[in-house]
Each structure stands twice: as structure tokens, then as C-alpha cells.
Amino acid sequence: MTTRDEWRGRTGHEWARRDDALERLLGPAGHEGVAELAASPGERVLDLGCGSGASTAELAMGVGETGHVTAIDISPDLLSLARERLAAAPQVTCLEADIARHGFQTEHYDAVYSRFGTMFFDDPVAALRNVHGALKPEGRTVFVAWRDAGRNQWASVPMTFTADGATSGGPSPRPGPFGWAERDVFEPILTAAGFRSIRPETFEYMAEISDGDDPDPVQRAVAFMMRIGPLAARLRGASEDAKRETSAFLAQRLTRHVTNGAVRLRACAWIIRATA
Fold it and tell me: Under DSSP, is residue 156 helix (H, G, I), strand (E, B) or coil?
């Protein structure tokens, strides 16, 4: 579980440092989600948990100069990157705020989008009820969220081995990367928040797992897994011997997944459409 304070501190800082690496993992699903939302010129769109603003930039292109995108996140480090990326887009406003508590204008937005953000809400019903009130009647939404870890090799491969040799457990409905892994978790949340016509679809792709400039693609993938994601969280405070053992295990497992000069692993996400 990643807390609000962690996003404002260590986790947000680390994600900002690894932005290029994270885009390789998150970007394809994000593109698919933006395409599903199909923002039109002149529309007002709310981007929840905008991160470094990659999806926000795509949304801004959709609404054009006559529309507007409000990008909101809780991490000052990620928002700093977003503001740099979107400096030439006057139709974008970046806000550092808690989505559950922010005073949105009532019935102001035509559409709401989130790329891998909703799973981290401490109180998702409260947050999304607040968002629902900001949507116009019949306003549309697209939320992108991970399916279960078993369908996501980028998570399941490293989590077969942890610092203490333990095998990871299954998905959890608590806040975290797989908090919305199951349909019977997110559908009641969205319904309680006031959304209807909930239509989840699966999107699968091969994600490039790479961080840093090591010439060996396996070592770049190991670096990513040791710094970002569920395994990285378990390795905090582990001994150097445990980290070396984990690194060696990962290198051995990842060698078989090198394709076209990079480690590529299966990723599987929900593209969840709903209506206000």
C-alpha cells in the first residue's frame, strides 16, 4: 500500500526520477485509454492522478485550443515534470490536490480520465463521488487499472522471489497497484460513487522493462524491478546480500524474455468506461 505521504515524498520522487522507464510500462495502456475517451475539441476534461503529464498532453491535443484539461495529482515531484511537459499547452491547468477533498466546480467537466491512478485512492468511494459531482449529466469516464498480478509478468516474475525468499500473495482490494484487479471490487465502488453503465474491457500488450543505460537489456530490466514496483517495496531495508541474491535470480529469469534488444513482459490492464 502506498500512502498519501509516500506519494508526496519518496515514492513520488522515485517515480519522477524513473519517468522514462515508467512510460515504457504504462504508456501503451494509457494511449488506449485516451483513445477510448475520445476527447473532442472544446471539451473540458479532468485527468485524475496525472503523474508526469504524458496522458494529459494527449488529452490536451484532443480538446484543442478551445477546450481545457485539469490535471490533478498529489505528488509535487510528478507535477513538476507535468508542468515542464505541458508548458506550451495553455489549455492545461495542473493542480496539486487531494481528489477526495478538492472543491471541484459542480457539473463542470464533459469527461474524466485516469491512467493507473484510481487504485491508489485511500477512500475511492469518497474520491469518486466528489469527481462524479464535477461531471456534467451523462459525462463519460475512462479509468485504466491493472488486472491481477498473475496476468502481469512485469509484476509476477519479480514477485516469485523476495528478499526473504517468500512467494507473493494474490491481488488485494486495498490501495495499491492491484487494488482494482477484480471486477467485483471496482464495480461496487463506481456504483456507490454514482456511476452507471460500467463497461470494463481487457487490454493486453508486451511492455518494455528497462531503466538506466546499461548495455545489457537484462541488467536494465533488473534495475527497473529493484527500484520500482512491488518487489522494490519489499526490498526496502533488506541486506545487501539479499539484494544481490534477488538481482541474480531476476537476471536468470529475465534472460529468456529478451526480444529485439530489450526485456519485454506481458502486461494486462482494464480499460473501464462508465457514465455519470
Answer: helix
- Dihedral angle computed from the Cα positions of residues 103, 107, 111 and 113, in that order, rounded to the nearest 10 degrees: 20
CA–CA gap between residue 104 and residue 119 (Å, rounded):
21
- Strands 68-73 vs 135-146: parallel, antiparallel or unpaired: unpaired
Which residue type, as a one-letter code, is found at position 206? Answer: M
Q: How far apart are CA 256 and CA 200, in angstroms?
A: 32
Q: What is the DSSP string of 64-126?
A: TTTSEEEEEES-HHHHHHHHHHTTT-TTEEEEE--TTT--PPTT-EEEEEEES-GGG-SSHHH
| 83 backbone φψ class: left, alpha, beta (φ>0; ψ -120 to 50) | alpha
Provide DSSP, 259-271: ETTEEEEEEEEEE
- Match 505541458 to its residue by C-alpha cell: 86
CA distance 235 to 246: 9
pTM of this structure: 0.92
CB 115 within 8 A of CB 144: yes
pLDDT in tens, 74-121: 999 999 999 999 999 999 999 999 999 999 999 999 999 999 999 999
Residue (of 229, 267, 247, 227) closest to 161 by Cα position:
247
Contact present, 29 and 115 (Cβ < 8 Å): yes
Q: How many CB atoms lie within 10 A of CB 239?
A: 10
Measured in degrees and rounded to the nearest 5, phi and psi for residue 239 equal -70, 160
Please give the Cα distance from 228 to 224 (Å, whole number): 6
Give residue for cell 515508467.
22
CB 134, CB 46: distance < 8 Å: yes
Cell for 119? 487504485
